[in-house]
């Protein structure tokens, strides 16, 4: 089971008693005395010499999914619960869910939170996912379709402003229409994030392309049985 990724806006910790320097030094000494395990996992597997897979989303500083897979394969058990306190876009959560492990994540970056939440679709039957995709498509099409113009367009004239110029207000309206439907809202949010990461010039067709990419990703996830 995958728990929704929590978004933490701020963290504050107050220490009533500061540890003496000697105690801190002792803690580090104990950590340094722990021998490195160089036998449980062959070095070539840790080095990912035959890397074949990439992460679901493009994000700086994320783990390779194959490294996470290796670590879970070696150290997790069927009853393990996985916690990723720096979940990023959810690479660890995705790999844990593929092994049917209960997993939780926390992340401070709002964009990363929305991307990681995509993995929650694995808890949903494909039929329900497609329904969410249809609802997201209906909302998106109603707003971007008037900005798709070519010689075959049903419109007699070009739109008064380009889609990219109008995108800010259009995206706000998309999310407003989906605000009571969290999974639909997540699909649209991820499409918007993908759109904003594309290079200019951007058009309504650009948004349509990234929207379809994300919908295919959601639909392709394996379905996990809920207890």
Shape: elongated
Q: Spans with pLDDT under 50 lasting ≥5 residues?
A: 9-16
Question: Strand share of the residues?
Answer: 5-15%
Indicate the radius of gyration in whole angstroms.
22 Å
Cα distance spanning the termini: 8 Å
- Reading the helices and strands in chain order gives EHHHEHEHHHHH
What's the overall average pLDDT, rounded?
84
Q: How many domains in all? A: 2
Number of helices: 9
Main β-sheet, spatial strand arrangement:
1-3-2
- State the secondary-structure class: mainly alpha
How many strands, which pairing sense, and closed or not: the largest β-sheet? 3 strands, parallel
Share of helical residues = 40-55%
Number of beta strands? 3
What does this molecule look like?
The protein has 227 residues and is mostly helical. It folds into two domains: 1-9 and 42-122, Vaccinia Virus protein VP39 (Rossmann fold, 3-Layer(aba) Sandwich); 124-220, no CATH class. The chain has nine helices and three strands, in the order E-H-H-H-E-H-E-H-H-H-H-H. The protein has a three-stranded parallel beta sheet with strand order 1-3-2, covered by helices on one side. The longest helix has 19 residues, at 126-144.
């Amino acid at each position: 089971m995958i728990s929704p990724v929590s978004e933490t806006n701020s963290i504050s910790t107050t220490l009533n008693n500061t540890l003496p320097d000697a105690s801190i030094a002792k803690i580090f000494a104990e950590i340094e005395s722990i021998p490195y395990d160089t036998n449980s996992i062959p070095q070539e597997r840790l080095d990912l010499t035959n890397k074949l897979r990439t992460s679901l989303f493009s994000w700086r500083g994320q783990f390779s999914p194959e490294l996470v897979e290796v670590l879970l394969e070696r150290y997790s058990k069927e009853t393990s619960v996985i916690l990723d306190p720096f979940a990023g876009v959810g690479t660890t959560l995705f790999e844990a869910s593929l092994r049917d492990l209960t997993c939780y994540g926390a992340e401070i970056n709002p964009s990363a939170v929305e991307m990681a939440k995509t993995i929650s679709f694995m808890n949903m039957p494909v039929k329900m996912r497609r329904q969410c995709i249809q609802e997201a498509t209906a909302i998106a099409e109603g707003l971007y379709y008037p900005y798709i113009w070519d010689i075959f367009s049903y419109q007699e004239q070009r739109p008064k402003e380009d889609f990219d110029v109008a995108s800010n207000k259009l995206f706000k309206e998309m999310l407003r229409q989906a605000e009571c439907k969290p999974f639909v809202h997540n699909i649209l949010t991820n499409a918007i994030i993908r759109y904003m990461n594309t290079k200019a010039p951007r058009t309504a067709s650009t948004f349509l392309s990234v929207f379809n990419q994300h919908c295919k990703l959601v639909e392709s996830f394996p379905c996990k049985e809920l207890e």
